[in-house]
């Protein structure tokens, strides 16, 4: 809760894109540490599992939790915003359900370490996509946000 509340201040201080990238890096590192800790499985690695979990949760809460919802509100035109948020919410819930199913089956057939490696790879792919596609909207009015994408499309 403390991290989520501080993320609200960081969104305007750091900006959406940097906070999202740091968040994805945190979830990537947390997943990687969890994978390594599960693979090594000694008594001392239990601390690695706790630390990996905490890094993942803090990483998620500081950016991946709040930033996408703030970002959608800024970049989607007002006339489409309610439909876009509803569609995105449905897609994220569907994907979360699929991911829970896949990881649950993966734990049975491949083990914990392989599941966390899979999650680390997904986080790495999301980090690359965010680096390439997410445009910073800090300090830009909602009315002018649509022009950011015109500039980004012409610069690629």
Helix content: over 70%
Q: Determine the N-to-C terminus distance.
A: 38 Å
What best-fitting shape do the alpha-carbon axes yield?
Answer: globular
Q: Helix and strand string, N-terminal first?
A: HHHHHHH
The overall pLDDT, averaged over residues, is 84
- What oligomeric arrangement do these chains adopt? single chain
- Major sheet attributes: none
Class computed from helices, strands and strand pairing: mainly alpha
Query: Uncertain spans, ≥5 residues at pLDDT below 50?
Result: none
Number of helices: 7
Radius of gyration: 18 Å
Beta content: under 5%
Total number of beta strands: 0
Model description:
With 156 residues, the chain is mainly α. 82% of the residues lie in helices and 0% in strands. It has 7 helices and no strands. It has helices at residues 2-14, 16-40, 46-64, 67-75, 81-109, 112-133, 145-155. Helix 1 (2-14) packs across helix 2, helix 2 runs antiparallel to helix 4 (67-75) and helix 5 (81-109) packs antiparallel against helix 6 (112-133).
Structure in a nutshell:
The protein has 156 residues and is mainly alpha-helical.
């Amino acid at each position: 809760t403390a991290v989520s509340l501080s993320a609200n201040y960081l969104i305007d201080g750091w900006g959406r894109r940097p906070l999202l990238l740091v968040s994805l890096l945190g979830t990537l590192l947390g997943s990687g540490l969890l994978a390594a800790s599960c693979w090594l499985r000694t008594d001392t690695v239990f601390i690695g599992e706790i630390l990996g979990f905490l890094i993942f949760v803090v990483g998620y809460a500081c950016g991946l939790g709040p930033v996408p919802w703030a970002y959608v509100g800024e970049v989607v035109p007002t006339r489409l915003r309610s439909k876009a948020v509803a569609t995105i919410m449905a897609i994220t819930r569907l994907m979360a359900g699929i991911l829970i199913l896949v990881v649950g089956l993966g734990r049975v057939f491949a083990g914990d370490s392989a599941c966390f490696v899979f999650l680390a790879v997904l986080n790495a792919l999301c980090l690359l996509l965010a680096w390439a596609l997410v445009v910073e909207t800090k300090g830009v009015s909602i009315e002018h946000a649509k022009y950011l994408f015109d500039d980004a499309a012409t610069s690629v």
